Structure formats: C-alpha cells, structure tokens
Amino acid sequence: MNTSIPFISDRQVAQALDFRSVAAALGAAFASLAAGAAAVHARQRTDCRDLRLSTMGAVWAERGVAGVKVYPTVRGQFSFSILLFDVLTNQPLAVLDGNEITRLRTAAITALVASKAGPLRPRKLAVFGAGLQGRAQAEALCEWFDFEQVALVDPAGQSGWADTLAHRAGCPVAFTTPEAAVRGADLVVTATRSATPVFDGAWLAPGAFVAAMGISAPKGRELDDTTMDRAGRIILEWMPQSLAEAGEVVLWQGRTDSAPLVDLPQLYAGDAPWRAEGQGITVFKSVGIGLADVAVAHLAVSRILQCNTAAEGALP
Ligand SMILES: NC(=O)c1ccc[n+]([C@@H]2O[C@H](COP(=O)([O-])OP(=O)(O)OC[C@H]3O[C@@H](n4cnc5c(N)ncnc54)[C@H](O)[C@@H]3O)[C@@H](O)[C@H]2O)c1
Hints:
The chain is an alpha/beta fold and 316 residues long. It has helices at 10-16, 19-34, 99-117, 132-144, 159-169, 178-182, 225-230, 239-245, 247-250, 264-269, 290-312; strands at residues 7-8, 39-48, 51-60, 65-74, 77-78, 81-86, 91-97, 124-128, 149-153, 173-175, 187-190, 209-212, 231-236, 261-263, 281-285. It is built from 11 helices and 15 strands. Strands 10-9-8-11-12-15-13-14 form an 8-stranded parallel sheet, with helices on both faces. Strands 1, 2, 3, 4, 5, 6 and 7 form a 7-stranded mixed sheet that branches. Helix 2 crosses helix 3, helix 3 crosses helix 11 and helix 4 runs parallel beside helix 5. Bound molecules: nicotinamide-adenine-dinucleotide.
C-alpha cells in the first residue's frame, strides 16, 4: 500500500509541459481509443442547490494508467483535481492540480484537430472569448500557424494581453466586432461562457474551420443553426459524451440522421478522411473528455516524477 501519494501542482505542470507535447499525448490517446486500447469514463454530474460536482476519466490500458478528474462548480467557477493510478501495480501514481492540465489540453486539442482537418495555410484567426481558455486557444494556435491577422472578440478583453500576443505571433492582434472578426477568417474559435450563439454563421468564409470550446451542456450553444447547416463535416471528440452534452448538436433544428458527424476515434481509425471535400465549413465541437485529462496527467507524471526521482538519485 502506497502511504504517500505524490502531489503535482499547476505550477509544476506549467513548467514541465507545453502545447506541442500535450498535443502529441492527446493524439496517442485518441489513437489508443480508436484501437480499443483506451476507454472513456463519461462525465457524471451531481447537483445540489446551486452546487455541482463532476467527474470524468479514462482507462488508458496501452500506457498502464487509469484516472479520474473531479471538480466542483461553485458560483460558475471550476476547481479541477486529477487522481492517476498505475494499473500495473494497482497503486495511485499521483494527485495533480487539474487547472493547468485542463487549460493546456483544451487549447492543444483545437490546434491538433485544426492542423489535421482545417485549412492548410490559415491566414486569419478569430477568437471569441479572451478569458482563461480563449487566451490559451489563441496562444496555442499562434504557435502552430503563421497568421497574418488575429481578431479577438470579448467585451471584457484586455489590450495588454493582445499586445503581448501580437509580439509573439508577429502579426496584428486586435479586438473588434463579431462580424469583422468572422468575415474572412480561416479559423474561428469560440471559448466564451455564452449559452447563445456568438456570431451569425452566414458571415463564415467558405472552407472555414470553426472550433466551439465553450459550454458543454445540452441547454446552450455558441454556434447557430446556420453554421451547423453549412458544415460539410462536424467533428466531435467522442460520440457518446458529445451527443449528450453538445448543445450545438442537441439544439440544432436542422439536424438529420445524415448530419455529417464524425468523432476523433473514427478519424484516428481511418474510417473517414480528416479533411472534408469541397467548400463546406468544418466544425469541431469540444466538450472535453476524461481521456484527454488522463493522457496529459500521465505525461506530467512521467516528466515531473521521473525528474524528481533522478534529481534525488533514487531511481529504482
Ligand atoms: N471544451 C472543454 O474541454 C473546456 C474546458 C474548459 C473550459 N471550457 C469552457 O470554456 C468556456 C470559457 O471558460 P473560461 O475559463 O475561459 O471562462 P472565463 O470566464 O475565464 O472567460 C470567458 C470570457 O468570455 C467572454 N464572453 C462572454 N460572452 C461572450 C461573447 N458573446 N462574445 C465574446 N466573448 C464573450 C467573457 O467576457 C470572458 O472574458 C466555459 O464555457 C467553460 O465551461 C471548455
């Protein structure tokens, strides 16, 4: 019995991981899911008055780990923790702060899917929401792609951060109106707390890639019916959880049995090509699944605990 479970803080995660390594871990985990070597523990939510407790996790048999992310929602704010087990020894490996892991994996999955399913040379990025997730989305995408312009939409946006991003990305970054942001954008990301559509899908350029990362409850959505109707391809993370939680799909009036829905396990299995043919919009709707948290927690544990053990000279 392990009497002392190592704890890994958000700060340690931030120092050890980056968007690229996180995206690689996510790709490996989804490939395992496609091959039956991983399984997702879908989100469970329990509500009492205005409080909520949620859990989500995964077994990643190929890497010998299993884990769960648990978080209360209090006054709309999340507080994420992750418990990771080594299933070969059947012992807990670590308890991790989950806030930085959630931030990194949510941005990295957009970059990963956009690079596989989006336009080959995107020039203009539009991001709705410049909170924790929106800033991470913009930062990750600016690492992946050479944009000529980044348009931001957020009534509470901070110009100081936009200036820093412009310096890093080497292109103009500015707050603007929803229509000015979406018109001509190759990539559009929504990472707001809005439960109603944040732009008119008629403004989207042909062939645009739209990633909706915000609300993960079936009662709300950031994308409107026009966006969904125009989509030649709608990519979900994992069909069972996405169909239950993605308001974009659940509330979509025009949805039919022949809606062009595909999930990441299908794409990683090669059941469908990553890029849609023609000029249709590609939509990626993320609700966040526990496999992503377990994959990134595993990466963090591998890097941080191996580092610690090596530094202490106590490798077994
Ligand atoms: N898909 C996932 O895996 C995943 C993971 C974590 C968080 N989320 C979701 O991402 C969303 C954002 O989380 P956060 O932590 O960044 O929140 P946050 O409160 O830090 O930021 C949200 C920002 O959106 C802005 N905003 C609200 N309505 C807007 C609108 N119509 N247009 C433009 N901007 C608008 C707000 O001013 C705020 O700055 C939440 O809905 C959260 O549940 C998703």
